[in-house]
Amino acid sequence: MPVFYGTEVASPLMLGTAQYPSPAILAAAFRASGAGIATVSLRREAGGGQDFLRLIEGLGVPILPNTAGCHSAREAITTAQMARELLGTDWIKLEVIGHTDLLSPDVFQLVEAARELTAQGFRVFPYCTEDLSVCDRLLAAGCEVLMPWGAPIGSGLGLANPHGLRALRAAFPDVPLVVDAGIGLPSHAAQAMEMGYDAVLLNTAVAKAGDPVAMARAMAGAIESGRAACAADPIEPRDMATPSTPVIGKAFLA
Amino acid sequence: MSGGVSADGVTILGAGVMGLATATELAARGHTVRVVDPALGPGTQGCSWWAGGMLAPWCEFENAEEPVLRHGRTAIDWWDRHAGGVTHAGTLVVTLGRDRQELDRFARRTEGFEPIGSDRLAELEPDLSGRFHRALFFPDEAHLDPRTAVAALQAGLATRGVTLAAVLPPDPGRIIDCRGLAARDILTDLRGVRGEMLVLRCPGVALSRPIRLLHPRVPIYLVPRGEGIYMLGATMIESDRRGVVTARSVLELLSAAYALHPGFGEAEIVELGADARPAFPDNLPRIGQAGWRLYANGLYRHGYLLAPAVAMQLADHIDTGAKPEFWHETDHQR
């Protein structure tokens, strides 16, 4: 199971808590998924009351607060500090949004915020792109986990750049890597796990499905399959057929 | 004066939509009823004041559980009978060009609509003509002005001799707690879900029925209240914070309204409002017993849609002892 900052979590599925039809369905989806971590947005949800945070705490899963909706390093740092105070955790999923339409990370502000938060004792989970040099900078800033996007948040497009994600895995074999955002289907999640990613973080694909609980279960199954497949050392794809029965004695060279 | 069935009658706590609907249903069945509310009536202190007033069970089914659809259908007739002022014009659901999938998803998850094209849309809402090429029309839905509606209930109750007091009388009889979010002192898993709304005056845009604009991030609805007045709502934020509206919510709501029709750029902002809706974890209403009182609560964003059904279940329970469908077993008294 994935280990983040020395803590092993119970499942490679990290599940968001926004946009469910009701808290009861949210809780049922968590039970069905066996998710190892619950992410929660501080900016929108906790605008005064703490009822929702209490509900999330009631899920009995470690909480990873995020800085969703922050557009600058300064905002993200303030939100992280508020999260630490409210939830008593130094874990923070660092999200600094660069472009409103794509909700893509502002990688410059991201690195700046990661450096500052690490200095303040936070354990930073940066929502980033799959760009190698950005990831290098994040590690240099003190991050011990990377969370590249699969595709824009909520788009359900899956892994838009599988080659880049594979290259990132190869470049940082020892860093815990999480595909965060863009997952729409269980096959997308399985693909990330098959590539050797340590975990998958998703929200909309489950919360906005017609039956969130059934989709949560489907995601959990796919993630387990992908993880098992990766551990089983899958074969390499190749262009030529390799027959599974011997061909000696047959005139295949004729 | 109506003849009381029980000696002491029934005292209802709370003069929001739930309390007044319950009082109305009980009074209509011949019970002696009192309503107790420190504000002596509906007003800005309660979330009923800030509601949209859409009687839209088919649309709400997109994101709500089945009882909302089944019981919501009875609401339109109930409001017609007890308050009047219901406009039977249906609901239109539209999306902007690049969110077309949202309309398909909405259609897959709802029923009771006609998919319509430009021509029919132009007939129904000429001001939206040419702006949208596809829409869903829910012909059986209706809407009302919530403030007029609760005022009508209050007036109806007064003619039946129902008294409204600020404090609990010494001999209250049977008590039904309909205090909404204020009942968190006895209902521990009640939470607030914040909603923000605007009232606009925009005589330049003529719309005759509620319009829902689907959007992955900022879905809005506009409910016409006549004479160029529109209610624009509403955010859904997991927070019990009340009072002021945030700049972000105003920006989002107004941007969406402007995208629906640029004429809203000329609107006057008449009101900004925010409150918190009472909700239980499944976002469905509950009727139950908390210590010595009955309660009805947790109508969430379906106050006007579900209050009639909850009131009827409460009245049946009082008349016959029947267990309400929304009955909740746990005793919430601390």
TrEMBL record, chain A:
E.C. code: 2.8.1.10
Pathway the protein takes part in: Cofactor biosynthesis; thiamine diphosphate biosynthesis
Active-site residue numbers: K93
Compartments, record wording: Cytoplasm
Enzymatic reactions: [ThiS sulfur-carrier protein]-C-terminal-Gly-aminoethanethioate + 2-iminoacetate + 1-deoxy-D-xylulose 5-phosphate = [ThiS sulfur-carrier protein]-C-terminal Gly-Gly + 2-[(2R,5Z)-2-carboxy-4-methylthiazol-5(2H)-ylidene]ethyl phosphate + 2 H2O + H(+)
Protein name, as recorded: Thiazole synthase
Keyword match Cell wall biogenesis/degradation: no
Keyword NADP: no
Annotated ranges, domain Thiazole synthase ThiG: 5-246
Single Gene Ontology MF annotation: thiazole synthase activity
Binding-site positions, 1-deoxy-D-xylulose 5-phosphate: G154, A181, G182, N203, T204
Subunit composition and interactions: Homotetramer. Forms heterodimers with either ThiH or ThiS.
Function: Catalyzes the rearrangement of 1-deoxy-D-xylulose 5-phosphate (DXP) to produce the thiazole phosphate moiety of thiamine. Sulfur is provided by the thiocarboxylate moiety of the carrier protein ThiS. In vitro, sulfur can be provided by H(2)S.
Top-tier EC class: transferase
GO cellular component, one term: cytoplasm
Source species: Paracoccus sphaerophysae
A UniProt-annotated Pfam family: ThiG
UniProt xrefs under SUPFAM superfamilies: ThiG-like
GO biological process, one term: thiamine diphosphate biosynthetic process
Family to which this protein belongs: Belongs to the ThiG family.
InterPro entries named in the record: Aldolase_TIM, Thiazole_synthase_ThiG, ThiG
Alphabetical UniProt keywords: Cytoplasm, Schiff base, Thiamine biosynthesis, Transferase
